[in-house]
Amino acid sequence: MPSEINDYLLIVPLFLAVAAGWWLGRRDRVKAEGQTQRLYSNVSRDYFTGLDYLLNERTDEAIESFIRALEVNSDTIPAHLALAKLFRRKGDVDRAIQIHQNLLVRPNLSRSEFLRVQMALARDYYAVGLLDRAENLLLEIVRQRPPKPTLVKAQNLLISLYEKESEWQKALDVAAQLAPEERKTVQRELAHYCCELAEQSINNHQYKDAVQHLKQADSYDSTCVRPCMINARIAIDQSQWKAAIKHLKQVVERDPLFVSEILQMLRYCYEQLDALPEMNLYLRRCMGSAPATSVMLAVADNIKNEQGLYVAGSFVTEELKKRPSVKGFNRLIDMHIEHGAESARESLRVLRGLTGQLELSKPNYRCNNCGFSAKTLHWQCPSCKKWGATKPIQGLEGE
Question: Which class for 199: exposed (0-12), middle (13-18), buried (19 or more C-beta within 10 A)?
């Protein structure tokens, strides 16, 4: 049923375009007789046949009737564009390309119609994976300096194309041509493009270039945590422990949900400075501002080292009452296995094996846009392709 509804909605623009063409032909029919009159009679018949099919939810037959009407009334450019768009959405991109290519060779197209057809053809090429053709066509559209709405559409499609090809600098160059208000709509994406360039620079040991890319990322999106995490890695590689700690704390300030991602690097930096008590104080503060199971367990480890296993176990028990989680429960079982009586350990090991499998089977991250989940963090969701929407899972099965 949803597929039938989508098909119905897709042919509504085609239905309206053919109707407009038929009405214009009927209005001008008084100017011609004979063959022309029979021509529009055929249009009228095919149009109303298609309308009947449409009302009876016979979408395929309706499309064929409208196509026959277009073959007779070939001057209705909007109807051809609507038909091509329908073909592209239904996956028949080759037919859409053929329609648009046929329209482009017409000598009587106005400039606005020509640009509109070019833009539609570029979308066809993009949809079918002919990215080189799409790029050349879009660059040609931009060079023609079309009206702003068309120009912005061409530039945004170019940015998406360069993203698909991992041409991050080219995407940024096109974005630089956008007006500030238009650039704001893609600022999150642009920040991640800069981070991708920074990653490439780090791989080539070009740290200065990487830092510049990260500064540019911050200028696009000051709430993005990724530049902070990359900056921390650069600082660690250069043994700049205090600078790394500063960047890691900025991650929590920008998005507390990512606190679990920084704990390992944070501990390593504090260990190098021989300042673990300072880290313990920071984690205690995070318990209030950025509560997460990983933080609670890190605090529990500190308590265990300072006050013993029993006190640490009591702390974990009280925290799990506030924020229950499978990960926290597994750590509590581990503590009871270590501290409990020998007679209970075997049963606890069996239980731990079951709950451990449960924890391992669950994803750690989820896209807040489409719901895609994974064990590893993807800065761009593999499913919906949205940047920065995937975050650590919270709640019973997460943090």
Answer: middle
Answer whether 17's CB lies under 8 Å from 82's CB: yes
Phi, psi of 106 (to 5 degrees): -70, 135
What type of residue sits at position 91?
G
pLDDT tens digits along 149-160 = 999 999 999 999
Alpha helical stretches, state H, 73-147: 77-89, 93-104, 111-128, 131-143
Q: What token pair was written down for 357?
A: 């499998």
The secondary structure of 292-319, three-state, reads CHHHHHHHHHHHHHHHCHHHHHHHHHHH
Rounded distance between C-alpha atoms, residue 309 and residue 1, angstroms? 59
Q: Alpha-carbon Rg of the chain, whole angstroms?
A: 31
Q: Are 43 and 72 in contact (CB under 8 A)?
A: yes
Give the DSSP per-residue string, 140-200: HHHHT---HHHHHHHHHHHHHHHHHTT-HHHHHHHHHTS-HHHHGGGHHHHHHHHHHHHHH
Spatial distance between the Cα atoms of 277 and 279, rounded to a whole number of angstroms: 5
- Secondary structure (3-state) at 380: strand
Q: Write phi, then psi, for 32 (nearest 5 degrees).
A: -145, 155
Q: What is the pLDDT of residue 9?
A: 52
Q: Are 104 and 135 in contact (CB under 8 A)?
A: no
pLDDT digits over 61-112, tens only? 656 665 655 543 445 677 778 777 877 877 888 888 888 888 888 888 889 8
Residue-wise pLDDT tens digits, 116-128: 999 999 999 999 9
Interacting residues of 22 by C-beta distance below 8 A, sequence separation 6+? 40, 43, 44, 47, 69, 73
Kindly give, in sequence order, each residue whose CB lies less than 8 Å from that of residue 291, ignoring residues fewer than 6 positions away: 323
Q: Are 300 and 316 in contact (CB under 8 A)?
A: yes
Q: At 13, list the tokens.
A: 């623009």
Q: How far apart are CA 322 and CA 92, in angstroms?
A: 55
